[in-house]
Design brief:
10 strands; 8 helices; 5-stranded parallel sheet; globular; 266 residues
Length: 266
């Protein structure tokens, strides 16, 4: 990826458009190696499931993902009400010395982890009013995405498919609508299964992709992290280059016909 193609989020520039999570790895060493292989600069941390200092004496994730090297993105995974999500992110702000860039997700169902959009909108209003810079996990509904942007969220993060499903992008048409109307970054969040899914998201015009299970759940997480890094870069370059139109057939050959040798008359 060219160095001048930076990713602007909440007023800060990043080179990598791949954001990664920290859950589901077998140990902290694998977590560290996978994140390094991904090239990610923004790393999201589930505050309700990870120790970042709230449990003294226990292994601290920040020893593996130091805040002086990565932008830590606290998230509200496991929260099912707006109140729990707001409380969780206020705790994260205290633990991280006033850190205000956060990822909001309010879930509506324990089985499929689909977002609860009324509660998400409620929490977003509270957090933005409280000075947080909110990146928000949401459905791929263009109208609700616009509402979240109007509230003041700094990034919209529609699902590609259900969290952890690995089903890839099931509704590219809605994602395209969201991208076309957005004035803030749009990042695919949830559902990526393999490198081609990440490339497709970028080819659609997404500003970035966030993933965890697709890397941590792979047979070789470190190798998959490297593959995802390349896929995001390739998809971004393809989007910038501009693909050819789709056609059922083409009457315009790729090689010129002028100057070809003509068959001899017999």
């Amino acid at each position: 990826m060219t160095h001048n193609d930076t990713f602007l989020l909440a007023g800060r520039e990043y080179r990598s458009r791949l954001l990664v999570g920290t859950g589901k790895y077998k140990d902290f060493d694998e977590t560290r190696r996978a994140i390094e292989a991904s090239g990610a600069e923004i790393v999201t941390v589930a505050i309700r499931r990870s120790n970042i200092g709230q449990n003294p004496g226990e292994p601290n994730l920040l020893d593996v993902v130091p805040p002086d090297r990565y932008t830590i993105l606290p998230n509200t995974a496991g929260c099912y009400t707006a109140q729990d999500a707001v409380r969780t992110l206020r705790l994260a702000r205290e633990l991280l010395d006033g850190h205000d860039l956060v990822k909001l997700e309010v879930l509506g169902d324990k089985d499929n982890l689909f977002p609860n959009m009324p509660a998400t909108l409620e929490a977003a209003r509270t957090l933005v009013a409280d000075g947080f810079k909110v990146m928000v996990y949401c459905t791929d509904d263009p109208i609700q995405c616009r509402m979240l942007e109007d509230i003041g969220c700094v990034a919209i993060m529609p699902l590609a498919s259900l969290i952890g499903s690995g089903m890839g992008i099931l509704n590219p048409w809605n994602l395209r609508l969201i991208i076309d109307q957005a004035r803030v970054p749009v990042l695919v969040d949830a559902g990526v299964g393999t490198a081609s899914d990440a490339a497709i998201a970028m080819e659609l015009g997404c500003d970035g992709v966030l993933m965890n299970t697709a890397i941590a759940g792979a047979r070789d997480p470190v190798l998959m992290a490297s593959a995802m890094k390349k896929a995001v870069e390739a998809g971004r370059e393809a989007w910038r280059a501009g693909r050819i139109p789709r056609k059922h057939y083409s009457a315009d050959p790729s090689s010129p016909e002028e100057g070809l040798l003509q068959p001899l008359n017999t």
